Amino acid sequence: MLGAAEWLSDAHIQRDYDLLEVQLRGINPTLAARTRLVDPSVSHLLRHMKRAGDTLQSIYNQKDAPADFLFLPVNNGTLTSPGTHWSLLLVDRRNRERPVAYHYDSLRREGYNDVPARQLAGLLNANLSPAPMARQSNHYDCGVFVLEGTWALVGRLVEGQRPDREPLPLDNLVADRQALQGRLRGRLPHEEELRQLLDDEPASPPMMAFEPGELRQLLEDECGFR
Predict the structure, then answer these.
(1) CB-based contact 1:184 (threshold 8 Å)
(2) Averaged confidence pLDDT in the chain
(3) What phi and psi, each to the nearest 5 degrees, are found at residue 185?
(4) Could you tell me the fold of the domain covering 10-190?
(5) pLDDT band at 190 (very low <50, low <70, confident <90, very high)
(6) What pLDDT does residue 187 have?
(7) 189: Cβ–Cβ under 8 A, 6 or more apart, which residues?
(8) Which residue ranges make up each domain of the chain?
(9) CA distance to 19, 30, 42, 205, 216, per residue, from 210 (Å)
(10) What span, in angstroms and rounded, lies between the C-alpha atoms of 91 and 45?
(11) Cα 59 to chain centroid, rounded
(12) What sign does the CA torsion over 161, 164, 170, 172 have?
């Protein structure tokens, strides 16, 4: 599902976000209701929409409780060219008048995602703030850092930590591609239920191959066909 040096796609990120959301609902339903793990394709499209207000409101209000924390994967792709780098925005909206967008970028010095991060923060009316993030040592693990960073930050929120006046640092984060590969091989609850249903179904009889003449004779014997 994910190769040893493969760049992460929207599908990889969304899959892992789905798995994280299931776990968060089980551990802390209240925090889960106030947290949004935004689909990376939606995050990308937001930057290119002339009127993003309705989409933002649907993100804020898609659950029973208002959104306090948004996790948005950031990509430097455009409408005409694919992206080459992922980073992460954690938006703290607890103060609705003064939200803050903390930008975690494993290649911050290169500035690949400075512009898209600034655009997203502007759409969210949030003050953009750089956040400490470990630096990647290759050209393909930026997406892994985004996902491992999201899990680490959600874990800190579960523990009661909050980015009060300064970001939660990730300068010691380890991007564990093997752990991510293991998670991506897992199944979501509804997939487990479907697999169980399939496993419980009686096995289909083996397919039987007939010569045309044999098949015709079988039909004649069974149905009186002539």
Answers:
(1) yes
(2) 86
(3) -80, -10
(4) Adenoviral Proteinase; Chain (3.40.395)
(5) low
(6) 77
(7) 22
(8) 10-190
(9) 47, 61, 52, 15, 9
(10) 17
(11) 14
(12) negative
CB neighbours (10 Å) of residue 214?
11
| 214 pLDDT higher than 60 | no
The two structure tokens encoding residue 3: 């190769």
Helix (H) or strand (E) holding 220: helix 212-223
Q: Compute CA distances 24 → 20, 102, 114, 125, 194, whole Å.
A: 6, 21, 30, 27, 22
Q: Which two tokens stand for residue 98?
A: 């003064």
33: its two tokens: 């209701």
Q: Which amino acid is at 61?
A: N
Summarize the chain as % helix, strand, coil (round to 5).
Answer: 45, 15, 45
E-assigned strands of the chain?
35-37, 69-75, 86-92, 100-104, 127-131
| pLDDT, average across residues 25-32 | 96
Residue with tokens 């850092």: 145
Task: Report the residue count for the chain.
Answer: 226
Structure token pair of residue 125: 């009316």
Tokens of 147: 């996902």
